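Hi all, posting the design record for the shared folder.

TITLE: backbone redesign
STEP: 1 of 1
STRUCTURE INPUT:
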């Protein structure tokens, strides 16, 4: 599959990869933005295969029902109940303690729609689990996936989010007008 993904990604789609996942980091949050389309899913599957990096994800529980639930589980997904009133940060952070290797992909926007502010769940999961965050940008404008250097969130959320915003600055999603930070 890796050879096929490389052919599709590099030759047919004409994309490139800027950066790499740290092989020493076995546990982290992989924060991918902008998340504007279902196309992000297959780009992500190709990237993890091409880079030989085991990466998991969570998705709304409705995705894991018949007829496609088996596929999402097979590709490393786990259902999450997004019903209000649950401590999802603690529940997800506890998974890191149970596993020897666990890289969890999350979309900091929390939706495929345009947002003006990133959500903070991914940040607090990383803090609670004491794991770094690896920022990843799917830039459809440049046909590039940019992989950042892992960093541990500090106690200065304002400074950390300034760094995160800077990383995603100018990145264009599949649907540009839904990209984080999009301006007319």
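Okay, here is what came back for every position:
SEQUENCE:
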């Amino acid at each position: 599959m890796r050879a096929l993904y490389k052919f599709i990604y590099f030759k047919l789609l004409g994309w490139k990869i800027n950066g790499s996942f740290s092989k020493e980091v076995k546990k982290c949050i992989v924060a991918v933005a902008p998340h504007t389309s279902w196309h992000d899913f297959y780009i992500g599957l190709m990237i993890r295969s091409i880079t030989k990096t085991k990466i998991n994800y969570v998705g709304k529980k409705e995705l894991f029902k018949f007829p496609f639930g088996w596929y999402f589980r097979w590709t490393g997904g786990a259902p999450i109940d997004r019903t209000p009133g649950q401590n999802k940060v603690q529940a997800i952070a506890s998974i890191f303690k149970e596993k020897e290797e666990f890289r969890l992909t999350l979309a900091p926007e929390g939706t495929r729609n345009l947002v003006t502010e990133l959500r903070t769940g991914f940040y607090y999961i990383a803090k609670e689990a004491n794991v770094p965050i690896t920022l990843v940008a799917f830039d459809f404008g440049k046909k590039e996936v940019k992989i950042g250097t892992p960093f541990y969130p500090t106690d200065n959320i304002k400074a950390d989010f300034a760094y995160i915003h800077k990383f995603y600055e100018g990145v264009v999603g599949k649907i540009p007008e839904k990209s984080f930070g999009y301006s007319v």
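COMMENT: The chain has a mean pLDDT of 91.
Let me know if anyone wants the other runs.
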